[in-house]
Amino acid sequence: MVPVDVPVRTWESLVAAGAERRFRPGDVLLRQGDPPSHVLLLLSGRIKALLTLPDGEVLLLAVRGPGELLGEIAVLGGDGRSATVIAMDRCVARVVAADRFRALVRATDAETDLLRRALRRLREGEEWRAETAALPAGPRVVRALLRLAVPSGEVGLGQSEIGQAVGLSRGVVAVELGRLRDLGAVSTERGRTVITDLPLLQSLAASGRGSV
Question: Which residues, including other chains, have CB under 8 Å from residue 13's CB and lie 6 or more apart?
């Protein structure tokens, strides 16, 4: 799978240059604060990106799937890793050393594309945090589910993790998920939420209510 925001030529060159590595659920792929020694190209499985704040609070930044480039911002910027990346499923990735990555990016004239990609991701994160800070609990949870779900509708996250994404406690998330379950919008199991009525969830997000 080739990402829509990475040039095909660049992605294929990086895949060819990388060494395969496999990860189990719960494995750390990248750790916040570590030096940027390499990038990862995610070929299968899903990951979650977590940011630990100075006060110890943990924020869930994103869930990503196959076709994702991981760790490139730190490598291009020369800074430490900005977040911790953890495998949610069994993952297969290609590992490309930082020097090799930078050389291939230059060779394929992809610097501008990757910079635009990085800035777009930063804006998305800022917009999400600003949006959730201004909304009550119900709409926060609804919009988080829509953002974090994979195409099948599954959100492979527990209540605590959803809370980390929107700044809510596990108990508050449990209440809001219960309301959505009663409406028939989602089904829930331990550590797993599935969107069962996408149009309804989208209409709740658009209305700004999140629950009725």
Answer: 104, 107, 108
Does residue 205 register a pLDDT over 70?
yes
Domain 135-207 grouped into CATH 3.40.50.970: no
SS (H, E, C) 37-61: CEEEEEEECCEEEEEECCCCCEEEE
One of 2.40.128.110, 2.60.120.260, 2.60.120.10, 2.60.40.1120 is the CATH number of 8-123, namely: 2.60.120.10
Q: Give me the pLDDT at residue 26, please.
A: 93
- Average pLDDT over every residue of 81-101: 94
Whole-prediction pTM = 0.79
SS3 call for 210: coil
